[in-house]
Amino acid sequence: MIKIGIAGAGAIAGVHIDSYKCFPQLCQVVAVCDSFKDKAEAVAVGKGLKARVYGDLGELMADPNVDAVSICLPPNAHCSAAEAGLRAGKHVLVEKPMAGSLEECDRMILAAETSGTILGIVSQNRYKTPVAKLKRMLDKGLLGSVSYANFDSLWWRSPVYYDLWWRGTWAQESGGCFMSHAVHYLDLMHYLFGMPSRVRASIHNVGHDNSECEDLGFAVFDYKDKIVHFTCSLVSHGERQSITVEGDRGSVGVPWTVSANKSLPNGFPEDDGAGRKVLEDAYLALPDLELEGHDAQLGNFLRAIRGEEPIALDGRTGRKTIELIMGIYKSSVSGAPVTFPLGTEDSFYRKESMVRLMPKFHEKKKSVDNFSASKITLGRDLGR
Ligand SMILES: NC(=O)c1ccc[n+]([C@@H]2O[C@H](COP(=O)([O-])OP(=O)(O)OC[C@H]3O[C@@H](n4cnc5c(N)ncnc54)[C@H](O)[C@@H]3O)[C@@H](O)[C@H]2O)c1
After folding, report:
1. Is the pLDDT of residue 267 over 70?
2. How far is CA 186 from the centre of its chain?
3. Per-residue pLDDT averaged across 178-207, rounded?
4. Residue 250: helix, strand or coil by DSSP?
5. pLDDT of residue 146
6. Residue 161, pLDDT above cutoff 70
7. Which of 43, 92, 132, 233 maximizes the CB count within 10 A of its CB?
8. Atom 24 of ligand 1, nearest CA residue
9. Which of 132, 128, 131, 108 is nearest to 120 (CA)?
């Protein structure tokens, strides 16, 4: 039985606890920690856990009866908490974003490799049936040659969202909507297509006057044989998050859409019903995932600890997403394309130099320790 500790008893902690509860034969949540100890107590009671409650991360990491820790802390605490857990010999699962800089990612990877324990990074949208099926279809080459893909990471958050103390500053959150929200879709981009060779990007703040960081941004990624266009927003009513992939045999999307055209004699399109059916049939023939989202990813984390399968999203994979975001920020401030990879001497490798270079769209003037409501939404359901 794997004994789990939860670090941070805020909004996402309950999602982790519920997901661990899907595996009662494999694990048990035995400890909850939050610097507001009453929050940890409330979560333990509210979720019906027989768990020890800590008000200090050091106590949690020193607990010999904790085998693995879910890091559900604000982004600025991910690196130090993960390092502490890994060095204490615990397996560690870190919420997105992995960390606020590439240097922090490298410290976490080193700590995992030194300790020999498992470091996993949450990106639960890989575990959505339409995403998993799209990945299989691309790997099989069913779309033919892919020329272009479009990612819309469109979300809506009111200005109040940024009143929480750690949000909306380069130092604490390490970014705006690219770091906090598009992080999910940037992970899917390199999952589906690998890493691009370069990026051109721009960032803006059009509606959040309590945030230093962007609430709107655009990026174009160049690959050897394709282009990926990315829109990232926190001002989009309806939150229409989606992916579209254009191949020469058809166009498919997440949430699932399919279309295929063939040419009329004058070059205008008409529906290619047969081509569309090939793609539709291939999609339907692929199996649905048994579990989705956090349930599925935490299941992988537990089975990886048991040595039954590899960790699906390790530190090196999580680091790629942070590298993409740092490339976006670098291109946004320089106005020039940025080529990957970013080296350790790059001014966007370390957080301090990145923070110095980023524009402060607004000064963060309002800050609250906690919101009275803990309910959150996890975006458009990309699943079945
Ligand atoms: N995967 C997803 O879809 C998803 C959704 C929401 C949040 N998240 C991520 O989860 C993380 C937490 O977000 P949240 O919305 O739960 O934030 P939150 O502010 O609601 O919760 C964080 C908790 O950590 C506690 N905390 C902060 N510093 C601490 C420390 N040093 N020691 C002990 N406790 C400490 C705070 O008191 C707070 O209760 C963030 O990285 C966020 O990006 C992921």
Report:
1. yes
2. 8
3. 98
4. strand
5. 98
6. yes
7. 92
8. 8
9. 108
pLDDT band at 340 (very low <50, low <70, confident <90, very high): very high
Pocket flag, ligand 1, residue 378 (CB < 6 Å): yes
Cβ of 11 closer than 6 Å to ligand 1, yes or no, is: yes
Instruction: Determine the CATH number of domain 126-290+320-357.
Output: 3.30.360.10
Buried b / exposed e along 177-216 (16+ C-beta atoms within 10 A): bbbbbbbbbbbbbbbbbeebeebbbebbbeebebbbbbbb
Tell me the CA–centroid distance for residue 20 and ligand 1, in Å.
17
Is 110's pLDDT higher than 80? Answer: yes
Q: Does pLDDT of 80 surpass 80?
A: yes
Give yes or no for residue 371 CB within 6 A of ligand 1: no
96 lines ligand 1 (CB under 6 A): yes
Cβ of 95 less than 6 Å from ligand 1: yes
User: Which CATH number is correct for 2-125+293-312, 3.30.450.20, 3.40.50.720, 3.40.50.2300, 3.30.230.20?
Assistant: 3.40.50.720
- Residue 379 clears pLDDT 90, i.e. is over it: no
Phi and psi dihedrals of 313, rounded to 5? -125, 90
> Would you list the domain boundaries of the chain?
2-125+293-312, 126-290+320-357
Q: Which of 56, 57, 95, 374 to mutate to test the pocket of ligand 1 (most atoms within 8 A of CB)?
A: 95
* pLDDT > 90? residue 311: yes
Looking at residue 315, what is its pLDDT?
98
Query: For ligand 1, what atom is nearest to the CA of residue 75?
Result: 41
